[in-house]
Amino acid sequence: MTANEKAKAKTEQATGAAKAAAGRAVGNERLTAEGRAEQMKGDARQAKEKTKDIGKH
């Protein structure tokens, strides 16, 4: 997994978690959903990169 892609995945996961928490705190369902979606995007990016790493070995 390249360091750049790994950093992007972690950033997306952290940003998504923060948005989701903020949305829950203020009762904003749209913000909560956006946060969850961004977090899932980071999870998917991380899984994709791990799969690529497994294929190299």
Structure in words:
This protein is mostly helical and 57 residues long. It is built from two helices and no strands. The protein has helices spanning 3-26, 29-56. Helix 1 (3-26) runs antiparallel to helix 2. The longest helix is centred in the last third of the chain and has 28 residues, at 29-56. The chain starts with a helix and ends with a helix. The mean pLDDT is 92.
Characteristic key phrases:
single chain; 57 residues; mainly alpha; 2 helices
Short account of what is shown:
The protein is mostly helical. 91% of the residues lie in helices and 0% in strands.
Helix content range: over 70%
Please give the number of β-strands: 0
Order of helices and strands: HH
Strand content: under 5%
Q: Could you report the average pLDDT, rounded to the nearest whole number?
A: 92
Largest sheet: none
The separation of the N and C termini measures: 12 Å
Rg is 13 Å
Low-confidence stretches: none
**Total number of helices:** 2
Outline: elongated
Output the structural class: mainly alpha
What's the structural blueprint in terms of helices and strands?
Blueprint: H1 3-26, H2 29-56
